[in-house]
Design a protein that fits this description.
The complex is a heterodimer of chains A (329) and B (401).
Chain A: E1 19-30, E2 33-44, E3 48-52, H1 59-66, E4 74-79, E5 82-84, H2 88-92, E6 95-98, H3 110-120, H4 129-136, H5 151-163, E7 169-173, H6 181-196, E8 200-205, H7 208-214, E9 217-222, E10 225-231, H8 232-237, E11 241-247, H9 250-258, H10 261-264, E12 269-273, E13 276-281, H11 288-299, E14 304-311, H12 314-321
Parallel strand pairs in A: 3-8, 3-9, 6-7, 7-8
Antiparallel strand pairs in A: 1-2, 1-4, 4-5, 9-10, 11-13, 11-14, 12-13
Helix pairs in contact in A: 4-5
Chain B: H1 35-46, H2 49-76, H3 87-119, H4 123-128, H5 133-138, H6 140-165, E1 170-173, E2 176-179, H7 184-193, H8 195-201, H9 213-218, H10 246-265, H11 273-301, H12 305-324, H13 331-335, H14 338-344, H15 374-398
Helix pairs in contact in B: 1-6, 2-3, 2-6, 3-6, 3-11, 3-12, 6-11, 7-10, 8-10, 11-12, 11-15, 12-14, 14-15
The chains are: A alpha/beta (329), B mainly alpha (401).
Chain lengths: 329, 401
């Protein structure tokens, strides 16, 4: 593949690039199977970025291509403004990554494994081994053999391996795998703390709830292509709002709302609900509509016991855009 | 945004590119491995307890135990069991045990060094550091050699020490103990003083008209002079040939000693310094070849079991066969076998591959081996070292991590 600079972007301007990761038309095939199919991806600097997709969508393959673990068949890519693979060594000097399950030499301790990795990095990275182990919370077990570590501890050791390079960009492939709820909470907080320090975290995951809670922006990949990307708030703003109404006379309330401008608006749907009514409002509907419905019902003498609005979750939105309803993400 | 802790207060602060200000360049793209990479790779191999025990057991343990048993047996029953050391023990251990097993354990270490990162999932962590894959490969060579070379040297040193310090004090020539390092005149003088033993046990070849024939036939030996047929004891009253004088017997023994001197001179109580130095270098060469070839093969295949089996088969089965068999039209291909090349470099005085003495000129003088010049042997060894290194490095730089 050819790694060319973007027009007008020189090496010295690499640090000024606003994108931590940038790919254009990236292609990677395994025989007839196109795992990465012309991916256009822009990961902004200084945020937690989720890379989501169903199993087999090409998430890990894209990460492996970015990191030089396998070669691309076409397209261009940049990491931290450096074109790769041409300047991969410069780019990777500022990148830490976990790909797939973090595995290490089991006969060595966690600290010794990090010593091997630090030896391959810049000399200063050796001084970061202790602090990195402390930060991920495995310093007390740092001198135990890795073969005695749990999966969660290996994940933490993987993060420590990333940190010894003092990276500007962390690429974490399924970092929540094997973690218990407390471990997931710790990992989430750790990722947020990395972002707070100005680092970029790109994490691939199929745990949509975790991504929604951790990330600022996401890209959805399906069948090797990025189908949506952007800040989560903006992406979800384009989804419908469902209002659940619990009241004394649901039938009358339904008839009353149906004849108003709200009920007649495009995209609005009123359906019976076990506790009352479910009113689906079109994307972009303002919150004042909820107050208007409440006022309408009260003025008509209908007692309103409860009003609750639900924005579509990342998970339901994910299933919509990937057209894989009924499939496990 | 909170301040980035850099996870180490002592590390230089990041510069505009995020690179530490004032930090020395780490030459990450260079193919030359750093000292730290070699040191940590050495640590990774050294910490493999099972492998290290196996290496120690084979390179040091086998000769040490063998020699210790011989020392004990000789200490408890010196008349039944001969000395633990000596030239014959040395040549058997160096040419047989250390040569073959040294290669196999070196190859096992090389295969492990070449495949462990892949099989244990560490390779991708290393690639992600941005370090040149070639440098990652090359770092394994000095690290592995730093383990196997001292181990082979330790085993060899034990063999040398025991064979020198526990060597027999006398040579056994045809079952007769003879002092070592005698000149021709010295041997003749000694033979004159031990005429009966020399005449009865030393080999000789004389014609029936030889002036000493009558003397030899007159000496009463259990199995006849020179190991020949036994002389029947004469019946009582039998008048045999006249008994030779002592001067005649001494003269005959002196002549027999003179005939045996060249055989005597070729025997040693213990190996010479020169032979030990050459043998040590030869063993280390064999270990280096085993390690480098194993490293390349392990990296090429990406796993451990199959390459180790291949290396054992090569050393124990294929090399002895291909070194001695005369296969029409394939002799040049046979000469490309590295084991044949190292056999041709066997120091003089050691047995060569598959048995047979190396003779003063080394393995090349052994008629059993397929002929090969020293130059060709050196070229074959160099080609194996370079070729397998290139193959292993190529696979490492091109494989998916």
């Amino acid at each position: 593949m050819t790694a060319t600079m973007l027009p007008g972007l020189s090496d010295t301007q690499a640090s000024a690039s606003q994108w931590a990761v940038e790919t254009h038309g990236l292609i990677k095939s395994f025989g007839d199977n196109v795992a990465v199919n012309g991916v256009e991806l822009l990961v902004p600097r200084g945020c937690a970025f989720g890379y989501l997709g169903p199993n087999g969508a090409g998430k890990t393959t894209l990460i492996r291509v970015l990191l030089g673990l396998t070669h691309a068949d076409g397209g261009t890519m940049f990491m931290l403004g450096h074109p790769v693979p041409r300047h991969r060594d410069e780019a990777l000097a500022r990148v830490g990554a976990i790909v797939d399950e973090p595995r290490f030499h089991g006969h060595l301790s966690g600290r010794q494994n990090l010593q091997i990795l630090a030896a391959a990095r810049e000399p200063a990275s050796r001084q970061r081994i202790g602090p990195s182990l402390e930060r991920v919370g495995i310093l007390p077990r740092a001198d135990d053999k890795v073969s005695t570590y749990s999966m969660g501890m290996r994940q933490r050791l993987g993060v420590a391996a990333c940190l010894i390079g003092n990276p500007d960009l962390l690429i974490l492939d399924e970092p929540m795998n094997g973690l218990d709820p407390a471990g997931m909470q710790d990992m989430r907080e750790m990722i947020r703390s990395f972002v707070a320090e100005g680092r970029t975290v790109m994490l691939s995951s199929h745990l949509l709830d975790e991504v929604e809670r951790t990330c600022d922006a996401v890209a959805i990949v399906d069948r090797g292509r990025v189908v949506r990307q952007g800040p989560i708030s903006e992406l979800l703003a384009g989804t419908t709002l469902v209002l659940h109404v619990e009241c004394s006379d649901p039938d009358r309330a339904r008839a009353l709302i149906a004849v108003t401008a709200i009920g007649g608006a495009d995209g609005t749907e009123i359906t019976p609900d076990p506790t009352g009514l479910a009113i689906t409002l079109a994307a972009g509907t303002g919150r004042e509509v909820i107050a208007e419905i409440n006022r309408l019902l009260v003025e008509a003498g209908i007692s309103v016991y409860r009003l609750s609005a639900h924005q579509a979750s990342l998970e339901s939105w994910f299933l919509q855009v990937t057209s894989r309803l009924g499939e496990s993400p | 945004m909170t301040a980035r802790p850099d996870t180490a207060a002592s590390a230089p602060p990041p510069g505009p590119l995020g690179l530490p200000v004032g930090a020395a360049p780490d030459h990450r793209g260079s193919w030359i491995p750093s000292g730290a990479m070699i040191a940590t790779r050495f640590m990774e191999l050294r910490k493999r307890r099972g492998l290290m025990i196996a290496l120690l057991a084979v390179t040091v343990g086998i000769p040490a135990v063998f020699l210790a048993i011989r020392l004990l047996l000789h200490g408890f029953a010196p008349k039944t069991y001969g000395p633990a050391g000596g030239y014959s023990v040395y040549s058997a251990l160096v040419g047989g045990v250390l040569y073959v097993f040294g290669f196999i354990v070196a190859a096992t270490l090389g295969v492990t060094a070449g495949s462990a990162d892949l099989t244990e999932g560490m390779f991708r962590h290393l690639v992600v550091t941005g370090r040149s894959r070639l440098a990652l490969y090359l770092a394994r060579i000095p690290a592995g050699l730093a383990i196997i070379v001292p181990l082979v040297a330790a085993g060899f040193a034990i063999v040398c020490a025991v064979c020198v310090f526990a060597a027999p004090t006398q040579l056994a020539v045809n079952g007769v103990n003879v002092p070592a390092h005698l000149s021709r005149a010295g041997l003749e003088s000694w033979a004159a003083d031990h005429a009966d033993e020399v005449i009865c046990h030393f080999n000789f070849s004389i014609g029936p008209s030889s002036p000493i024939a009558d003397v030899l036939n007159s000496v009463p030996c259990a199995n006849g002079p020179g190991g020949g047929p036994a002389i029947l004891q004469p019946p009582p009253g039998f008048q045999g040939p006249p008994q030779p004088s002592q001067a005649q017997t001494r003269k005959a023994a002196t002549e027999i000693a003179d005939m045996n001197y060249s055989d005597y001179a070729r025997q040693f109580l213990y190996p010479s310094d020169s032979l030990m130095i050459r043998s040590g270098l030869w063993l280390e060469l064999e270990a280096v070849i085993g390690f480098v070839v194993g490293l390349g093969l392990g990296s090429l295949i990406g796993q451990r079991t199959v390459p180790v089996i291949v290396m054992i088969v090569l050393e124990v089965v294929l090399t002895p066969i291909l070194s001695r068999a005369r296969i029409p039209h394939f002799s040049n291909l046979q000469r490309a076998v590295v084991g044949l090349a190292t056999a041709h470099l066997t120091p003089g005085g050691l047995p060569v591959l598959g048995g047979g003495g190396g003779g003063p000129g080394g393995g090349g003088g052994n008629p059993g081996l397929l002929p090969e010049s020293t130059t060709v042997a050196i070229c074959v060894i160099a080609a194996w070292l370079v070729g397998w290194s290139v193959l292993g490095a190529w696979r490492m730089t091109t494989r998916d991590a």
